[in-house]
Amino acid sequence: MADDLGRRTTRHAVVIGGSLAGLLAARVLAEHAEKVTVVERDRFPEGPEARPGVPQGRHIHVLIAGGQQAFDELLPGFTDELRELGAPKVGVPEDMVQWQNGKWFDRTPPTLHFYAGPRPQLEWLVRQRVFADPRVELVEGHETVGLIGDSSRVRGVRLRERGAGAEKETRVLEADLVVDASGRSTKAPDWLAAIGAEAPHEDTLDTGLAYSTRVYRAPDGALGSDTMGYFIVPNPAQQYGAVVLPVGDGHHLVTLSGLRDDRPPTEEEAFEEYTKRMPHPVISEWLATAEPVSPVYGFRKTANIRRRYDRPGRRPAGFLATGDALCAFNPIYGQGMAVAAISALALRRALADPKRTPTTQRVQRALLDASKPAWDISAGSDKKMPGAVGDTTKPGPLDKAVGWYMGRVQQRAAGDPVVGAAFREALHLTAPMTGLFAPAVARAVLFGPVAESPAGPPLRRDA
Ligand SMILES: Cc1cc2nc3c(=O)[nH]c(=O)nc-3n(C[C@H](O)[C@H](O)[C@H](O)COP(=O)(O)OP(=O)(O)OC[C@H]3O[C@@H](n4cnc5c(N)ncnc54)[C@H](O)[C@@H]3O)c2cc1C
């Protein structure tokens, strides 16, 4: 790496945060730097267990198709290994009973798959792969508490041992490049301000969505019939949702969601009561047969937040942000892990571009661009949710026309194979949203009928 990212060469890169975005960025940086140090405030568990620094890890995490491609490119064979560890592979629409916009989806053969399975297991697998590279080192149990440098260049980070108390001395880790991957609650804007640089503007859109999740075991370890999961997708008129997915070993995660004024409960009895409000009792009936095997876990930080490091300002060289620290989404769309991997690929391309010097500004822009398709889906849909707040709620010039078209897409996605497949490609980040305007899709959206969809939850695959 020769440029303002690291003077003549990047000898040492520091990545703040050892979760997915940080690990995958480290993987790519190791191709360019002599040494990469990942600084993580947690001490990693030995095995695939949940840890405090990633509290969302107890909730349903699906690895969508666009994420699978990116993980496999970064870590060849990754999804095979994930499957060997027991992560269930779910075909959509065939394996799911899905309700969206007042319609049950036909269970036709899958056009895409996602992986369910515990989030800690997926991260553990990435960790094994990334730290197998001797150029990637770990400083765990240490929190980054600030940056060193000035408004023109970041020169390292300041660390404090976790649990040592605020009075304990900090130590400095010098670096040619610092990458912030410390997640949606990053303190980097404050750290930048403290060295005289400018904190980024934050685009925000918050529906106040909350999750409540509990693990269940069914008597026969399954949902019954040939169904792998249930998904009640919320919409502006019906704002609570539920997802049930297998995570291996006969266990299922049940995640309920609701908005600010109607959050799903974290009390055990009320949790099951809440499922009775769904448009159909299919989930509450299954819960009545299943045994809860965990407490109920809640999660509330779900706002869409995009930090605009790409905008002009006093931005120091040698500092980048990626993953949720750069752009965090409403988790209901299941995109964050995929975007972490897609961003690492964008980092790889930007650093290796033979035609353009990878300046901090260029690389940061490439990282932001990598998150844009997911942002457009997540913030674009959330804009329509009642009670959404934030500066991204203002309607844009094309919103009305796009909203009209997307309404027709959604009406047809459940029963029209062409529209359904294109819709899933966009949601899974395997094709851009513009794919929904391709001639064959547009014809079906503009002139095709709305196919009849099943009257109730289709508990069997289509014959
Ligand atoms: C409820 C919920 C459900 C989700 N479901 C899905 C899903 O289905 N599919 C999907 O793809 N994505 C999902 N996501 C998003 C996904 O969890 C994240 O996008 C993904 O983990 C990548 O995040 P990250 O690595 O940027 O940050 P995080 O995973 O949040 O990790 C940040 C890391 O930085 C560390 N850290 C923080 N501060 C410091 C510091 N000062 N010093 C050192 N270390 C620090 C933390 O300990 C942690 O390890 C969901 C998110 C939530 C909230």
TrEMBL record:
Transmembrane segments: none
Domain FAD-binding per the UniProt entry, residue ranges: 13-355
InterPro entries: FAD-bd, FAD/NAD-bd_sf
Pfam family membership, one: FAD_binding_3
GO MF annotations, alphabetized: FAD binding
SUPFAM superfamilies in the cross-refs: FAD/NAD(P)-binding domain (SSF51905)
The organism's place on the tree of life at top rank: Bacteria
Protein's name in the database: FAD-binding domain-containing protein
Lineage: Bacteria, Bacillati, Actinomycetota, Actinomycetes, Kitasatosporales
